[in-house]
Structure formats: structure tokens, C-alpha cells
Description:
alpha/beta
Amino acid sequence: xxxxxxxxxxxxxxxxxxxxxxxxxxxxxxxxxxxxxxxxxxxxxxxxxxxxxxxxxxxxxxxxxxxxxxxxxxxxxxxxxxxxxxxxxxxxxxxxxxxxxxxxxxxxxxxxxxxxxxxxxxxxxxxxxxxxxxxxxxxxxxxxxxxxxxxxxxxxxxxxxxxxxxxxxxxxxxxxxxxxxxxxxxxxxxxxxxxxxxxxxxxxxxxxxxxxxxxxxxxxxxxxxxxxxxxxxxxxxxxxxxxxxxxxxxxxxxxxxxxxxxxxxxxxxxxxxxxxxxxxxxxxxxxxxxxxxxxxxxxxxxxxxxxxxxxxxxxxxxxxxxxxxxxxxxxxxxxxxxxxxxxxxxxxxxxxxxxxxxxxxxxxxxxxxxxxxxxxxxxxxxxxxxxxxxxxxxxxxxxxxxxxxxxxxxxxxxxxxxxxxxxxxxxxxxxxxxxxxxxxxxxxxxxxxxxxxxxxxxxxxxxxxxxx
Length: 468
């Protein structure tokens, strides 16, 4: 019992927090802020959106809710990853969109920023990790230049089994592998795709290639915590059990049973719902349709890019659920503090009033760098000496926040105690819940992407694919 309590206390210390005060009218005024009465005015809409999300979870339509609890799949992934570590020097992900962005986000967040340059022993004997998420010929050629195919395994990821960009890259490297290793080429391929359908599933079965399944009810942009994202994470030494434990912890925070009993319950008890409700009000009431996701850590810029996909592709829709033309959605912007204080901030502070800034703040970087006291006779040096870079980056964020509030610009902050697998699992999961709840508020389908499909169909027709 004491151990359980200790574990719960440790998790509580690692719980991410959201601070919404700078979205409220008390901080930035009634013209651009949200009031408690604004929230009260949409209580019925919030209750209906909750019911829709709850029904989607119960029916299995929102399959990402099940991902934190996949013990059998995790065991299989860990076994495969150990085999890879023992046999290969390079691990290459071939995927695009939701089949790559989550992988990249996890790797950037939880591994050394210069991971591939570290000696193998400093990577805990894990392979180098590469992501090929485009069909840029120069990029492909340069990857070919630096990897030894005999020591490389490729993870081919596409749920449909037919994504043209991924298949193209697969065919290029399959041809090279056959020349380099002959009949052993199958040992260098792992396929992650639909469990039943598609040409890649057929190939995996016919050639007895190791394969993993993307759950039928999990779309690409919600698949980061499925085998799509977990294999590359495990291969690089990321603790995927802790990642899923963080997601499960956030699931408890965002699965508010009080809503079932009382639709007017306090939104603060569900951080995903509250963030969605406030962004919804800023959108419909204050015409703010741009969401800037701005972490203050280079490790989190991959999360910002992943957020951009899930926020844009899920919510940018022409039709409502009743098939009415609504042309709704948000434009996501990926920004990096402090870098983009020197490139984008001028627009955010003094440009059009059409944005909400979402900061991600890290309380403990697990690295302390002090600023030396050198050349104190120079005024621009003297006031910095003796401080720490940790102090400076936190003050930079506070300064940006201050400038935005002073100019009545809405913003809120997601606070991570530190960056680790448990907190990143929380962060990914809360964004997924926030997204589907926003979809319910907007009365659109957050799971499809018909606008993307139109472009895919065009390409397939031009290339002469049968059936298009």
C-alpha cells in the first residue's frame, strides 16, 4: 500500500498543469478575453460535446483512448526492438504525416538532440534513427550516402498500405536492399500497417515479414501512442511504458465522471475540455482562428509540428455533421521560444487580433548552465554575468507573456515539471482529447480528411493507378 501511495505521489509531482488566466477578460479585457458568463452561455454545448466524445469512446470510434492500455502490443514491440538493437546500426522510418510526425516528436523530445552523433555506447547501444518523411530526391540520395544497407532496418509505416510517398521510398530501398543483401532483405524490413487490409499487409503475409498493426479505429494523426510511434521510440531507448503511463494518467484527469452527473460542473477539473472550450470561445466570439503553439525548449519543437497536423487536419472542415457548409477550423503555427521572439513575436504583439498563443514551459531542464562573469566593463555583458541560462529562458517566456497581456493578446501556458516520457505521454494525450472535444464543439468530424484525399486521388489518377 505504501509503494502504491509513493508511486501516486511521484506521478502527481510530474503532472502537467495548464494556466488559463491570460485568456480571461480579467487579464486582457472583455474585447479579447473570455468571461465566466461566456463559459456559462455554452454549458449546454459543452455537455452535448462531452456526450458525443463519451459515446465515441464507448463505441470504439475514438480508438486512441484505448492506446495507453495496450500491454500485449507493448510486449511485442519491446521484443522486436531488442532484436533490432542486437543486429542493426541504423533504424530508418519510412512514413509521412501521422506515420512520421509522432515518431519525430518523440525522438526530439526524449532523446539527446545530437543522438545520431553520439558514440554507440552513449546511445545505450541503440541504433542511429532516421526519418524519411518526404520524397525529395536529394534527401533520399543523401540518406543512401550515409547508411550501410547491410546494417540497416527499415520500418515502413502506412495504415492504408498504399500511401504513395511511403510506397515510393519503400520500393527504392527495397531494390537497393535486394542488391546489397540478396535473399536476406526480409530481415531488414518491418511493416506497420492495417491488421487486415492493404497491399503491405498482403506482402507481409506472403513474404513472412515482421509486421505490426495499426488499430482499425485509430487514424494516422492519433497513432503516435500505437505501434506507429512506439517501435522507433523503443528502438532508441525511450521508456514506452512510462510514455503510456503518462497518457493513462492524463486520461484519468480528462475523463470527468462529474460531467455525466452534472453538465455544469467546473471545467477546471478537465484541462483538455477547458482548453478546447476557451479556444472555441475565442474563435466564435472573438474571431481568433490562429493557434500558435510555442514551446520554450528545442526538445519540444517536434511536438509543435505534430500539434500542427492534428489541429489543422482534424478541425479544418468544409461540412458540418449535418452536411452543411461551415468552412471551419484553425490555422496552427509552430513557434519556438526564444528563437521566434526574434522573428514572429512582433506580429503577435502588434499585428491582427486573430491569434491565441499556447506556451509550453519547462520548469526543470535537468541541465544547469551558469553565465560566466567576463568583461564586466561592457554593460551588455555585466548584467548577465552570474546569472544562469535557465533563469534567462524562463524570464524570456515571462517577458513575452507580459508583452502579450499588455497588448490584450490571449495566451495560456502548459507547464511541464520536466521533459520525460511520463510528461510527454500526458502532453500528447491531452492534445488528442482537446482536439476531438473541439471537433464536437464545432459539430464536425475530427477523424476524417476529405480535403487531403482529393489531392491523393488526383496523383493516383495522373500516375494511372487502377481503380481511380
